[in-house]
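Risk register update: the risk of archive-format incompatibility is retired. Evidence:
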Amino acid sequence: MWYGTHAIGPMVALSNSRVKRVNCFGSGSMAEELQKQYNNPYPVESALLEFENGMKGEATRCLFETARVYLEGLSVYGSKASFEWGFADNDDPYISIGKEPVEGLRGSETEVTQMSMPNFHEYLPESIQKYTINVKDFDPLNPQLSLKKGHGGGHHGSHPHLVHEFVRSIIEERRPAIDENLGANITAAGIYAHISAMDNGAPVMIPEF
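Archived output:
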């Protein structure tokens, strides 16, 4: 969880609140040479995050010695609809829509569809829209088609959006959507999650920045 920003950042954005407290457990046993390199005995760490507004989230990191296809994903569960990342990193996500409860049926029926992720390239200046996809997939003869296909570029096409927001904040003389305080909170949540894991899941309060 030392590098948990990819997992924690989206939850902070969706909750519109900072991480307040974290409990984290480590599991498994890391190879000795990896323990020495990273000063971490756990191949898997699972953190429970508490936000200031009362919402909760969970993040699991497993980068080593785990037989699973690579994934940096996010799932959000609600009473009327849920969003779940595909099985692998580049798979399309699943949207579940809850129907009215049926008498005698535990829970309710759901309608599940799989959809392609948009990259919202139209919100960017035309000169950098192509960087929302892997450049090798960009078709200059039909740019809109190649953009709509997705093929997310760096971190699923987020890089040009992040750069554009930061540059616009300077031009418009305002704070960026992710400023130093929010960035510090996202980063610290992962660092302090690892501290919790090293203390057998003891709760750790995240300092204010």
